[in-house]
Structure formats: structure tokens, C-alpha cells
Amino acid sequence: MDLKGKVCLVTGASSGIGRATALQLAQRGAVVAMAARREQQLREIAEEIGGQSSIHLCDLGDAASVLDLADDVLALHGQIDVLVNNAAELVAGEISAVDLESLDRCFQINLLSPFLLCGRLAPLMAARGEGVVASLTTAIASGRRGLGAYAASKAALDSLTQTLRQEVGGKGVAVFSYDPGWVQTAMAPDGKESPDDAGARLVAHIEAAKSARQPLT
Ligand SMILES: NC(=O)c1ccc[n+]([C@@H]2O[C@H](COP(=O)([O-])OP(=O)(O)OC[C@H]3O[C@@H](n4cnc5c(N)ncnc54)[C@H](OP(=O)(O)O)[C@@H]3O)[C@@H](O)[C@H]2O)c1
């Protein structure tokens, strides 16, 4: 996809990989709608980008706010060409130690908010015959001791991605999961790779993304 002028919604754009992705998308000429809770961080990134961006304060732990987010971005920009489901919360603790509230929040942010955004936005992309949905996954989605809630939420997100691809992939929408590797961010302070590199790779995948109906070149 040629990103010039395309509207890209990036969740969790206030730090780490989401921030880097938003900046890279803007460098390609995209209009970037950035969602997160921390206003100051979003404002600083918007300033760095210049005119072609908007910020959307949103707690993705709240389903009503997620739907409002989609509607706000659509109202402001008219359409959304690229959805990057990047925001996530890492809940640590062995399964027996994870309390219901943390589990609920983890699944709301990591799975239910992408589910709702996909449900609202993918049909609009399919109706136009073009769009990209990228969701951040992890190598530990198959299971990791002490990270059961996070891993299970990402495994379910991968499943959502597979189903969405079957539903809209033949209608011009490219749908994929992206594992950034081990990246040094607030979520992974010991990570080895830079968020800038991870964001650049993700944006390259978005540019190269093909829907099921596009011929492979
Ligand atoms: N770092 C790694 O090594 C690694 C490896 C594999 C996958 N990933 C995935 O990469 C993605 C980005 O992670 P990161 O490493 O860049 O972490 P990060 O720097 O901690 O960023 C997480 C982002 O999610 C947002 N967020 C969290 N809870 C939110 C909520 N309730 N509502 C709205 N936004 C919320 C945060 O914004 P606010 O706090 O401002 O709301 C922040 O912008 C995640 O999906 C993660 O699972 C990371």
C-alpha cells in the first residue's frame, strides 16, 4: 500500500513500538491518528509529526471508549485505511496468582479492543476494496510460564487475525500479525532491539501487505 495520504489508526502510539510506528507512517506521508491514555506523550509526538496527525485520548480497557475511538477517527478523517492494533498490557504472574480484575483488563485491552475495532473498521475497508489490519503479536503467544494471561490474550488475538483474514482477505483487505521480536520498551526494559527498528519493519510490512485477492509479485 502506498501510504501517502492514507489514514492510519495506531493504538498505543504514546510510547515504544507504537510511537515509532506512528512516526514512520507519518514520514511516508500518512495521516496518523494516535490513540492512548497519556496526553502529553501523544502531544509531543504530534508536534514532531507536524500537521498530518490527530490524537485521541482513550482507555482501551473500556469497550464504549473503543467504539467511540473508531467513530471519532472516522468523523475526523472520513475513513481509516490502516488499523494497527498495537496497544497492550502485560500482566505478569503464574496462572494461580492472576486476579480476576487484572485478567479482565488484560483481555479487554489486548483482545476485546482489537476485536471491536476490527468489527467496526474492517467491513468499511472491505466495502472500499482496500485496507490493512496489523496486530502486534509475540513469540510467547503459545505459552510462557509466569505470563499466562498476556500469552493467552495474544494467542486469541492471533486467532482473531486468522478469522478476519478469511472474512475480508478476499475483499482487498490485508490482515496480518506482526511479531516485533524482543524490543526495549517500557513493557520489555531488557529488550535487545530498538523500537525504531521494530516500527520501521512493521511499516515496511504494511507497505508490502497483500490481501488474498491481490496477485503475489
Ligand atoms: N517490547 C517487546 O519486546 C514486544 C515483544 C512482542 C510483542 N510486543 C507487543 O508490541 C506492542 C507494543 O508494546 P511496547 O513494547 O511498545 O510497549 P509499551 O512501550 O509499554 O507501549 C504500550 C502502549 O500501549 C498503550 N496502552 C496500554 N494500555 C492501554 C489502555 N488501557 N488504553 C490505551 N492505550 C493503552 C500505552 O499507552 P498509554 O499508557 O499512554 O495508554 C502504550 O502506548 C504490544 O502489543 C506488545 O504486546 C512487544
Describe it for me?
By secondary structure, the protein is α/β, with parallel strands linked by helices. The protein has one domain (7-208): NAD(P)-binding Rossmann-like Domain (Rossmann fold). Helices cover 47% and strands 15% of the residues. It has helices at 16-27, 39-49, 63-77, 100-128, 148-168, 195-208, and strands at residues 7-11, 31-36, 53-57, 82-85, 131-136, 173-178. Strands 3-2-1-4-5-6 form a six-stranded parallel sheet, sandwiched between helices. Strand 5, helix 5 and strand 6 (173-178) form a beta-alpha-beta unit. Helix 4 runs parallel beside helix 5 (148-168). The chain is globular. The two termini are 13 Å apart. The mean pLDDT is 96. The structure holds NADP nicotinamide-adenine-dinucleotide phosphate. NADP nicotinamide-adenine-dinucleotide phosphate (NAP) binds next to helix 1.
Number of helices: 6
Cofactors, ions, other ligands = NADP nicotinamide-adenine-dinucleotide phosphate
Instruction: Kindly report the name of the CATH homologous superfamily.
Output: NAD(P)-binding Rossmann-like Domain
Described by strand count, sense and barrel closure, the largest sheet is: 6 strands, parallel
C-alpha geometry:
globular
Mean pLDDT: 96
The tally of structural domains comes to 1
**Helix vs. strand class:** alpha/beta
Strand order, main sheet: write it out: 3-2-1-4-5-6
The Cα radius of gyration reads 16 Å
Tell me the number of strands. 6
What fraction of residues sit in β-strands? 5-15%
Provide the succession of SSEs.
Answer: EHEHEHEHEHEH
Low-confidence stretches: none
CATH topology description = Rossmann fold
Query: Quick one: CATH class?
Result: Alpha Beta
By CATH, the architecture is named 3-Layer(aba) Sandwich
Helix content: 40-55%
Distance between the termini: 13 Å
